[in-house]
Amino acid sequence: MDVLVAEGIRKSYGAVKALNGVSLSVPRGTVYGILGPNGSGKTTLLSILLDVLSADAGSYRWFGQPGSKEQRKKIGALLETPNFYHYLSAVNNLKITMNISGRGSAEEITRVLKLVGLYERRNSRFSTYSLGMKQRLAIAAALLGSPGVLVLDEPTNGLDPVGIAEIRELIKQLQRNGHTIVIASHLLDEVEKICTHVAILKTGNVVSQGPVDEVLSDEDILELGTADLQQLKDLLLQREGITEIEISGSLLQCKAPKGSIDPAAINAWCHENGILLNHIALRKKRLEARFFELTGN
Amino acid sequence: MWKLLKTEWLKIYRYPAFWLLLAICLITYPGINYICYNIYLDITQRQSMTGQIVSLLLGNPFSFPEVWQTSAYLSSMFVIIPALLIIMLISNEYVYRTSRQNIIDGWSRYDFLLAKAIDVALITFIVTILYAIVALVVGIVHTDSQPAVDPAIPLPDMNSTEGSGSSGSIYFEKIHYIGLFALQTFSQLSLAFLLGMLVRKAFVAMGIFLFYALIAEPLSVGLLKYKFNNDIGKYFPMEVSDRIVPPPAFMSKLDEAGYQASLDAVPMHVGLTIVLIGITWMLTTIIYKKRDL
Fold it and tell me: What DSSP assignment string belongs to B162-215?
């Protein structure tokens, strides 16, 4: 069953169309990345799904039911920025989260603070925290009471490399334990490393969605190197199944539908035709390249 | 409801401004009573005709039961202190963006507004308790030791033993001023809340509130009344509820008819205030629901 289904969500800010009929479905137990450049509508979409903004049109369902406060209580969410009472400590801020959401307990507060590495500073005021610590507290609040669904908007914002690695590990672990996680990010690398599914958003439209492997690598690239690239190119043009050949620098790149290239066979075939290869490598299409292609940048 | 109150209390009781403003109330409420008591003594001690008439006509405004009204009026002049707190509490929610987070975490918009109304009620309650304690203490201090006719001589009252039978009823005769004070405070704090929610920036909202409550409205009410002989000012947002606690008699310059009229107008203003509170919160709800968080 899908944890979240959104259909035809539209939102405009005056003349600016932030979301242009966005539909997506998030299967249970996945890490679902919403990937898009700045201003593509990621945060607007999540804001609507969490009832902070109202959509102009469209609908969404959490756990098969229309969004409501009872649904939101079951979702741990971090939207855009860490939002806490500046004069309160981490513990007291989390007590407020606990009171409102009904998730967690005093022991839970201790557990999540230890989990995000804020336990030592649990009694310091929020206003004294660094950006990274604020972000950690926001993640702690989302994790409070171990909700089945997490919605994280740019969760690694402001974190140092160690923090980023920790959060990624945490997300993977949560997924292994059966949690469903929706992540918005403009960091390709992040999505590639932790997401199982992805939707790519471009100026308010979903341009592609599905399992990461399907969306982000729809063709394979074989890199070949030899003394005479032109000769190799002419040869390869005769071979079936290769969609595109181009010389890039000192290498030749052959593109073919995913899974259709057998490097060993090509190597043997070149050898038979009197060309000796000095380099051969099969590359999945770089996510970055795919991302630029999809978003038209 | 209980949960909302508990959550709001978590937000408030560790807020330094809350304790600061409470401390200011603790100083000003007794302070203003004390200052005005001295002014009153000054008038009556002159042994002039006026002084004697004041004493004879009105009794001691700082003894029971008059003290309930006197103290309510004096304390209510400082409604700006809790109003600042209310403005800060709502603008904090916007500045910290916690108004969003509360919704994300599982409140409905209605819950959020109800929680804020509880805030206003809670602060009203606390301020009212403070006023009541001050009035009680002031009343106890002045009731037994001072005969109504001549408060200047602090001699034990010869009639005190005789009068003690009725002192119970004297104590509580005008105790309904506690309710009036609370209603007035709630109404005016609700206005402050509406303003804070509209403007969102604490300092701007405070500036507007102070300017309006202390200068713009009193000025225009007075101007309309004395210059244009128009009493429409009594329907202005602050004035509507100001009039449910009329100034004590000794401050109305012996205009007995005017004083009586102001007392007679109280029930109407109670009604108007309740209507105004309804309008204030209705507006608040409409604006809040229309706005993106």
Answer: HHHHHHHHHHHTTTHHHHHHHHHHHHHHHHHHHHHHHH--HHHHHHHHHIIIII
Question: A129 by DSSP, 3-state: which?
Answer: coil
d(CA B158, CA B170) in angstroms, rounded, equals 17
CA atoms within a 13 Å half-sphere pointing along the CA-CB vector of B134:
26
Residue owning tokens 């409205």: B217
In chain A, the residue whose alpha carbon lies closest to the alpha carbon of B91 is A85
Task: Give, in order, the Cα–Cα distances in Å from A267 to each of A234, A272, A282.
Answer: 15, 9, 12
Mean pLDDT by 10 residues, chain A (297 residues): 91 89 92 88 92 91 91 92 94 95 93 93 94 92 93 89 88 90 86 87 87 75 87 84 83 82 87 89 72 70
- For chain B, where are the alpha helices, taking DSSP H only? 2-12, 16-45, 49-58, 66-76, 80-95, 98-105, 109-143, 160-172, 176-199, 202-210, 217-226, 237-242, 256-264, 266-290
Contacts of B7 in chain A (CB under 8 A): 96, 99-100
Counting beta carbons within 10 angstroms of the beta carbon of residue B17, is it exposed (0 to 12), middle (13 to 18) or buried (19 or more)?
A: middle
Lowest-pLDDT range of A232-241, A242-251, B25-34, B244-253: B244-253
Contact yes or no for A50 and B96 at CB 8 A:
no
Q: How many CB atoms lie within 10 A of CB B57?
A: 12
Contact B106/A at CB under 8 A: yes
> What would the two tokens of residue A54 be?
């109202």
Q: What is the mean pLDDT of chain B?
A: 83
Pairwise CB contact (< 8 Å): B3 & A99:
yes
Using the beta-carbon criterion (under 8 Å), do B97 and A81 form an inter-chain contact?
Answer: yes
Q: Does A73 contact B102 at a Cβ distance shorter than 8 Å?
A: no
Residue A25 token pair: 């479905």
**Cβ contact (<8 Å) for B10 and A70?**
no
| pTM score | 0.82
- Judge whether A251 is closer than 8 Å to chain B, CB to CB: no
3-state secondary structure A185-231: ECCHHHHHHHCCEEEEEECCEEEEEEEHHHHHCCEEEEEEECCCHHH
Any residues with CB less than 8 A from the CB of A238 and at least 6 apart, and which?
none
Distance from the A96 Cα atom to the nearest Cα atom in chain B, whole angstroms = 6
C-alpha pair distances (Å), A6 with each of A26, A48, A70, A197 = 9, 10, 18, 15
Q: Extract the tokens encoding A208.
A: 């592609």
Q: Which residues of B touch A53 (CB under 8 A)?
A: 292-293
- Structure tokens given for A144: 């409070």
CA distance A62 to chain B (A): 14
Give yes or no for A79 touching B (CB within 8 A).
yes
Segment (H or E) for A140: helix A131-143
In the numeric block, which tokens belong to residue A23? 């539909």
CB–CB of B81/B21 below 8 Å? yes
A73 and B97 within 8 Å at the Cβ level: the answer is no
Who among A54, A87, A100 is closest to B105 (CB)? A100
